[in-house]
Every structure is written in C-alpha cells, then in structure tokens.
From TrEMBL:
SUPFAM superfamilies: Alpha-L RNA-binding motif (SSF55174), Pseudouridine synthase (SSF55120). Responsible for synthesis of pseudouridine from uracil-516 in 16S ribosomal RNA. GO terms for cellular component: cytosol. It comes from Ruminobacter amylophilus. Its EC number is 5.4.99.-. It catalyses: uridine(516) in 16S rRNA = pseudouridine(516) in 16S rRNA. This is Pseudouridine synthase. Belongs to the pseudouridine synthase RsuA family. GO terms for molecular function: 16S rRNA pseudouridine(516) synthase activity; RNA binding. It comes from the Bacteria. InterPro entries: PsdUridine_s_RsuA/RluB/E/F_cat, PsdUridine_synth_cat_dom_sf, PsdUridine_synth_RsuA/RluA, PsdUridine_synth_RsuA/RluB/E/F, PsdUridine_synth_RsuA/RluB_CS, RsuA_PseudoU_synthase, S4_RNA-bd, S4_RNA-bd_sf. GO terms for biological process: enzyme-directed rRNA pseudouridine synthesis. CDD domains: PseudoU_synth_RsuA, S4. Keywords: Isomerase, RNA-binding.
C-alpha cells in the first residue's frame, strides 16, 4: 500500500481548498471512498482508493505538486511578497499564490523574464552565486555605447564599494544606444552600475533570458505561463 493521507488533505491538494473548506464538503456527504459516502475528514486514504467528489475522480497525492512559472514582469511592480507602497508581482497571477515567491529580483523600473515558484531548492540552484547562470538584459542607454566597452566589460570593472571586479560580461551593441549585456552574477543594480562606471546611464532595462530559458515572445508585460518540463530540468 502506498503512503496514506487524510481525506480532507486529499481534497486540498486536488482542488486548492483550505482544510476548513474541504471539511465542509466532506460533512455534506459529497465525497465517496470506494463507493461509500464518507463524512470523516480524518479518514486515511491512499493511491489504491477510489475517491469521488461531486462526480469527479480524485488522484491521491502525498504532497502538493511544485509549481513553476515564467512571467514578463512589467515596470512598476516589485518582487517582494509584501510591499505597502507598490503593487507586487504575485498579484498578477490568477493562481493561488500561497507558498509562491519570486526567484531573484528585478528592480521596480526593470521589466522582463522572472521565475515564480514554490520550490525553494530549485530556486536556490538558480540564484546561488556558485552556479553562475547567465542572465541577458536588453539595455537602452542615454548616450552612445562605444565599442571599447566590449573589451572593458569582458575584463571586468571595479564598481564603487566593491572589493572584487565584476566577472567577465558579454556586450553586444545592436545600435549606438541599444545593447545586450550578458552577466553571470547578480550584484545590486549591477547592469546600471556597470554602465554608470563608463559615464553612461541606463534609461530602459529588460531581462530576456536566464541560462538557456528565453522570455516567451508571446507574453505581454504582466502575462505569464507555466514552465515546461524541459525548462524546469535546466536548473
């Protein structure tokens, strides 16, 4: 026999109900186990049991399936779970947000690719400095970006207040004021500070990839989708 869980927990995992709501459904006699109505929320059930709620067959799982999303974060919202001054990213999801959090951070005025999950171990594999996952940003600048910045960023620059120079970064100049910058670390305001080091100023910033995962072109700002199994397995 497989692992067994309470009947009310089975309903919460299948329907996203609270434990209290699941108890109400059970006490109303809307749930059968192996063909018999059961009103005991504490009854232990397992994968071998046939559980039906309002005509729907339920799968008995012993823990909630982890959730993984990519969102095209718009400007003007923050990545924290609570902010009294600004809207938060999680409110853009129609999903039940319990347990979900943003993987890393994008500034209030930065848009683009952001992961959201409830899997702490997976998130750590992305954000850990030891992993060195690449992050590519589309950058719009106030002044022209000289070709000399390509070599400068590749060698690394020593930002104000830092003890170590930045890791080698790849700069691609698309237009004089429009570039792509790929970095492998996540220092505070790093992209803005790197261009500030050269005397330039970032006027627009959008993250377009993390590792091999690209921001979905079909996602408008504020829209999101589930990550594919392949995308999840990359980290």
């Amino acid at each position: 026999m497989g692992d067994r869980i309470r009947l009310d927990k089975c309903l919460t995992l299948n329907y996203g109900l609270s434990r209290k709501e699941a108890g109400v459904v059970i006490r109303k006699g809307e749930v059968t186990v192996n063909g018999s109505v059961v009103k005991d929320a504490a009854l232990k059930v397992g994968p071998e049991d046939a559980i039906v709620c309002n005509g729907d067959g339920l799968e008995v799982v012993t823990e909630q399936k982890k959730r993984y999303f990519m969102i095209n974060k718009p400007q003007g919202c923050v990545c924290s779970n609570d902010d009294p001054m600004n809207p938060i990213v999680l409110t853009l999801l129609s999903e039940e947000a319990g347990g979900l959090f943003c993987v890393g951070r994008l500034d209030l005025d930065t848009e683009g690719l952001l992961f959201i999950t409830d899997d702490g171990a997976w998130a750590h594999r992305i954000t850990s400095p030891k992993k060195s996952h690449t992050k590519t940003y589309e950058v719009w600048l106030a002044e022209d970006c000289p070709e000399s910045n390509i070599e400068l960023f590749e060698k690394g620059v020593l930002l104000r207040g830092e003890k170590e120079p930045t890791r080698p970064a790849r700069l691609e100049i698309l237009e004089p004021k429009h570039v792509l910058l790929t970095i492998t670390e996540g220092r505070y305001h790093q992209v803005k500070r790197m261009f500030g080091f050269t005397g330039n100023r970032v006027v627009g910033l959008k993250r377009i990839s993390i590792g091999e995962v690209m921001l979905d072109d079909d996602l408008m700002p504020g829209e999101y989708r589930e990550l594919t199994e392949r995308e999840i397995a990359l980290f």
